[in-house]
Write the structure tokens for this entry.
Amino acid sequence: MIGTAIGIYLGPIYGFWDFPQDLARPKPQPSHADILVDLRSKILNGLLQDPDCLGFLGAWGSDPLALIKVIPITEGNVSPFPRTQAITTETLTPSSPIPINPSIEINHNGFFFEPGATASLGGQTFQTGTPQFQTEVLLHELGHATGVLPLDANSAKQEDANNAAIVQKCSKTINGAR
Ligand SMILES: [Zn+2]
């Protein structure tokens, strides 16, 4: 009787341990640099099929297709507040509505690369850390870099208005980002 009981038991025990160990093996995660390379490409391809977004971002004469290929995107300690996802630094001149030398910095205290939170941006709900969320954030910053979005660093109300403009004009590019 004992022999039979062990015989029946060993199979399931070994089966149980083998299977979850395989499932639990961590998948290699792409680096943040890899994710950003992929996002530039997703946004470029999205914009090529999204005349509303392209027209909006290019309204003051800048070329968003050229810009998304080359604009510097780094990651750093932008703000201690996790609600801040990124900033664009640029030079504004009286002679042109298009900013000079724009660059984007992602807040590493924010949720750009962090899944697990929900964010409402311009009336649309996003899961953080997803391509849709990241695309919205980068298009918003691109809106500053092209000059079409008013400055919002010190105005939550303007920031909301800017997000609303981006989710409305660029819904095709945002929702198509996978
Ligand atoms: Zn902004």
